[in-house]
Amino acid sequence: MILRLEMPPELVLRSQEMKQADAASIAAGIPGIELMRRAGGAVAKAAAEMLTKEAKVVVAAGPGQNGGDGFVVATLLVRQGHRVSLGLLGNVERLSGDAALAAKDWKGPVEAAEDLPFPEADLIVDALFGTGIARDLYGSARAAVERMNASGRPILAVDLPSGIDGDTGRVRGVAVRAMRTVTFAARKPCHLLMPGRAFSGDVEVADIGITSKTLAASGGKLFANAPSLWLDKLPRPELSSHKYDRGHTLVVSGGATRTGAARLAARAALRIGSGLVTVASPPEALGVNAAQLTAVMLRGCDGPEGLHHILQDVRLNALVLGPALGVHSGTRAMVAVAAHARRSLVLDADALTSFEDLASELHQAFHYAPTVLTPHDGEFKRLFNGHPDILDPESKIERAHRAAVYTGAVVVLKGPDTVIASPDGRAAINENGTPYLGTAGTGDTLCGIIAGLMAQGMPPFEAASAGVWIHAEAGASFGPGLIAEDLAELVPGVLRKLLN
Ligand SMILES: NC(=O)C1=CN([C@@H]2O[C@H](COP(=O)(O)OP(=O)(O)OC[C@H]3O[C@@H](n4cnc5c(N)ncnc54)[C@H](OP(=O)(O)O)[C@@H]3O)[C@@H](O)[C@H]2O)[C@H](O)CC1
Ligand SMILES: [K+]
C-alpha cells in the first residue's frame, strides 16, 4: 500500500452530479462530441489492451449517449485493424445529440442488437446503457443483456455495466456481468456499492478533460473510503504526549455471562491508541472481567445511576455502549445518561435495538455528544421501523444519510459496502471489506477502534471512516480462520503502514 499524503480524497459522483460536470465542461469550451470522443477513445484503448490483432469485437450500442460512446469505440477499433460488428438497440435515425454525430463517423453496417453474434466475439463492448437507465430492463434490452451474459465472452462495459443503477448499484431487472469497466472522470456509487461493484469487474477511471475543480463543484460530498480521506486527522502520538493526552475510553460491559464483547471493544480501543481504557462492569460480572483484564482497567457500574456517577470523571471522554447490554429500558436509560454527559459515543447492537420503534427518542439526540451509530442492515431496519422516509430510499447512501440527519449522529451502515454518513452531508463508501470479518465479535472490535480514535480527538466522521477501513484492513491481513480475538492484535500492523 503506497500512501502519498498529498493524495486528495477520491470523489465519487452521482449521475446527476456527473451530468452537471459534463455541462460545466461543455460550457467551459469542451464540445460534448469531444467529451464523447475522449470517452470512446479511453474505452478503445482499454479494449486494445485486451485484444490480439485481427480480433473480433462485437459492440452493442444503446439509444442514448452511452450508445454514442459505443459508436466511437467501434470506429476507432476498425482503424486499429480489428474486425468490428456493431448492433444498435433501436434505430439510428432516432439517435440524437452527440450520439447521432458519433454514429455518422461509423462507416460499417448498423445491425440490430438482437442479431449480434456475441458467442463469436473475442471481446464484447457493452454500450447499451450508462447513467441514463430509467427503469428495469425488459423486452429487447433485457434479451440483449441476457444473450451477452450467456455468451460467456469477456465484456468491457462503457461507463458502467448496462442494467446497473448508477446511483444505487442495484440491478434493474438484469445486468451485464463485465470483466472490466471504463468510466469517465470519476467513479459513480455503483462502482463501489454492491452488487454493482461485483458486476463492474476491474474499474478504470479515464480522464476525459473534466477538471477536478469542475468535479468538486458538481459533487463534493461523496467519497471512496480510503486513507486519503482521513489520514491527516489520524492521531500521531508526539514524543512528549503521555497517556492522559490520548484520552480515556470507557466500555460498558454486559452481565456475568456476556462480558466478552466489552473486552473485545476495550482491547481494540487500547490497540488503536486510547491512552487509557476502562471496562464499566455490572457488580455480578466484576470477577469475570477482573480475571481477564490487565492493561484495561475495571470499575463497578450498577445501571444508569452507576454510569452517571462514573461519568463525573471528565477524563472519560469516549464511550462504547451496546454490545451485550440487553434490549430493554435500562439500556435506553444508559444511552440517555451517556448522551447528556456530552462525551464521544459509539452506540452498537443492543444500544440500537433497544430503541426499536422508539427511534423518535434518538431524534436530534446527539447535538452535544459526537456520536457514531454502527448498525448492520437488520439493526438499521429494526431501529427505524415506522420511518419509511429513512428506510425506503433505494440508495444505501441515502438511507444512511437520512438516518444521520435524523439522529444528528454519524451512521455506519455496515456490510461488504459499508457506508459512513455524516449529518453534514458527507458520506464515504468502504470497499476493502473481507468476508472473513463475518464472525462473532468483529462488530465489538470495530466499536472499540472508533471510540479509541475519538478518545484521541479524531472527529466522528473521520474516526468512523478510519475505523471501518483499519478494521477491514486488519481482517484482510489475516484472512481465513480470522476470529474476533485476532483483530485488535492486527491493528498495530495496519497503523505502522499508515503512520510510517
Ligand atoms: N462525462 C461523462 O460521464 C460522459 C458520459 N457520456 C456517456 O453518456 C452516458 C449517459 O447518457 P444518457 O443518454 O443520459 O443515458 P444512457 O445512454 O445511459 O441511456 C439513456 C437512453 O436509454 C433509454 N432507456 C433508459 N432506460 C431504459 C430501459 N430500461 N429500457 C430501454 N431503454 C431505456 C432512454 O430512453 P427513455 O425512454 O428513458 O428516454 C435513453 O434513450 C454516460 O453513461 C456515458 O456513457 C458521454 O458520452 C461522454 C461524457
Ligand atoms: K454500459
Automatic annotation (TrEMBL):
Reactions catalysed according to its record: (6S)-NADHX + ADP = AMP + phosphate + NADH + H(+); (6R)-NADPHX = (6S)-NADPHX; (6S)-NADPHX + ADP = AMP + phosphate + NADPH + H(+); (6R)-NADHX = (6S)-NADHX
Gene3D superfamilies given in the database record: 3.40.1190.20, YjeF N-terminal domain
GO terms under biological process: metabolite repair; nicotinamide nucleotide metabolic process
Segments forming a coiled coil: none
Entries under InterPro entries matching the protein: CARKD, Nnr, Ribokinase-like, YjeF_N_dom, YjeF_N_dom_sf
Cofactor note text: Binds 1 potassium ion per subunit.
Names of the cofactor(s): Mg(2+); K(+)
Pfam family, one: Carb_kinase
GO MF entry, a single one: ATP binding
YjeF C-terminal domain boundaries: 226-498
Binding-site residues, (6S)-NADPHX: 65-69, 130-136, 159, 261, 376, 444
Residues annotated to bind AMP: K414, G415, P416, D417, T418, G443
Entry keyword Metal-binding: yes
Domain YjeF N-terminal per the UniProt entry, residue ranges: 18-216
EC number(s) recorded for this UniProt protein: 4.2.1.136, 5.1.99.6
HAMAP family: NADHX_dehydratase, NADHX_epimerase
UniProt record similarity statement: Belongs to the NnrD/CARKD family. In the C-terminal section; belongs to the NnrD/CARKD family.
Function: Bifunctional enzyme that catalyzes the epimerization of the S- and R-forms of NAD(P)HX and the dehydration of the S-form of NAD(P)HX at the expense of ADP, which is converted to AMP. This allows the repair of both epimers of NAD(P)HX, a damaged form of NAD(P)H that is a result of enzymatic or heat-dependent hydration.
Assembly description: Homotetramer.
PANTHER family for this protein: ATP-DEPENDENT (S)-NAD(P)H-HYDRATE DEHYDRATASE, ATP-DEPENDENT (S)-NAD(P)H-HYDRATE DEHYDRATASE FAMILY MEMBER
Protein name (record): Bifunctional NAD(P)H-hydrate repair enzyme
The species this protein was found in: Microvirga vignae
Lineage of the species this protein comes from: Bacteria, Pseudomonadati, Pseudomonadota, Alphaproteobacteria, Hyphomicrobiales
Name of encoding gene: nnrD
